[in-house]
Amino acid sequence: MGNHEQLRNFDIHGFQTSLVSWFIENQRELPWRESKDPYRVWVSEIMLQQTRVDTVIPYYTHFMREFPDAKSLAYAEEERILKAWEGLGYYSRVRNLQTAVREVVEQYNGHVPDTREEISTLKGVGPYTAGAILSIAYGKPEPAVDGNVMRVLSRVLLIREDIAKAKTRKLFEDILYELISKKDPSSFNQGLMELGALVCTPTSPGCLLCPVRTHCSAYEAGVQQELPVKAKKKKPSAKQMAALVLKNEKGQVLIEKRPDNGLLARLWQFPNVETASKGEEQKTELKREVDDKFKTSITVGMAIQSVQHVFSHLIWDITVFEGTVNEKIHESETRKWVDWNEIEQFAFPVSHQKIIEANREMR
């Protein structure tokens, strides 16, 4: 049989047949499944990283209207791309995607590479994305290992390795080269992902509905709830922030562009600072920092809103103040006075979109 002890006495053919036929019969109708176009598969896979399917559907549909092919994305203005991605988070994903798509247009004549060796050299294309594109778009028997797939296989093959470790992902990749259907690798890989999303879920897996239950060692041993093994992540740390909706005499508000590198790079935001305090002291800190930054004098009014935004590693607790400027603040490449009705043209992080929402309701 195979070289892996986990596959000794395992009915590989039976597993493939049960999984593939279940997928063909039960797959969800999703917009990116309407076409095997490698560009479209690629965009959907990048969007689906760290984001739920239901959230991605409207974004994908809109993004495809804006950038229907590799060429249209390769040379689009960054501001347009960020606006189309606004709210999906992890913005480096779309920047890397544009860089990689441009390379495909320029180096590969618009044809997405169909070998793991070549496709893996593209920016932002890791082992999972490479495997997904190669199997779904090109029908190649390449593994695509994500959290869903590791969870399903941990249970089916009763593997107790910690899935948070890189070497465990490698183990699953090696096993999948043997396990994957050579006849229909696309349905096999999508079937594993779909099974993990709909049936073999993290908590209370739907074993009685599972098409591969008869092949599942964890179900047989009654330990499906204990798997997969995953080391606990550190809790995200919290930061106190103060943001400022700063108005001039025309009623325009000041927005600024975030730095070129780091978290939420090059998105627009309201001026804000990290503070050590809350309440009146926070207000004083905000005024001092903003006066200093813009070499001006502002008046900070009352707190008008609280916003909490949770990243994977960080929580922002933002108190939003309103303020007025006493001396002129000049515009620059990274600083603009805008009317409320034109603010929609700029791409903001989710936390600052909430500030725009609340101000829209107040006006």
Task: Describe the secondary structure blueprint for this structure.
Blueprint: H1 12-26, H2 38-48, H3 53-66, H4 70-74, H5 78-85, H6 92-107, H7 116-119, H8 127-136, H9 147-156, H10 166-179, H11 185-198, H12 217-221, E1 237-247, E2 253-257, E3 268-269, E4 272-274, H13 279-294, E5 298-310, E6 314-325, E7 335-338, H14 350-362
Parallel strand pairs: 1-6
Antiparallel strand pairs: 1-4, 2-3, 2-7, 5-6
Task: Describe this protein's structure.
By secondary structure, the chain is α+β, with helices and mostly antiparallel strands. It has 2 domains: 5-226, Hypothetical protein, domain 2 (Endonuclease III, domain 1); 237-362, Nucleoside Triphosphate Pyrophosphohydrolase. 43% of the residues lie in helices and 14% in strands. The protein contains 14 helices and 7 strands. The chain has helices at residues 12-26, 38-48, 53-66, 70-74, 78-85, 92-107, 116-119, 127-136, 147-156, 166-179, 185-198, 217-221, 279-294, 350-362, and strands at 237-247, 253-257, 268-269, 272-274, 298-310, 314-325, 335-338. Strands 4-1-6-5 form a 4-stranded mixed sheet. Strand 5 (298-310) and strand 6 form a beta hairpin. Helix 1 (12-26) packs across helix 11 (185-198), helix 2 runs antiparallel to helix 8 (127-136) and helix 9 (147-156) packs across helix 11 (185-198). The longest helix has 16 residues, at 92-107. The radius of gyration is 25 Å and the shape is elongated. The termini are far apart.
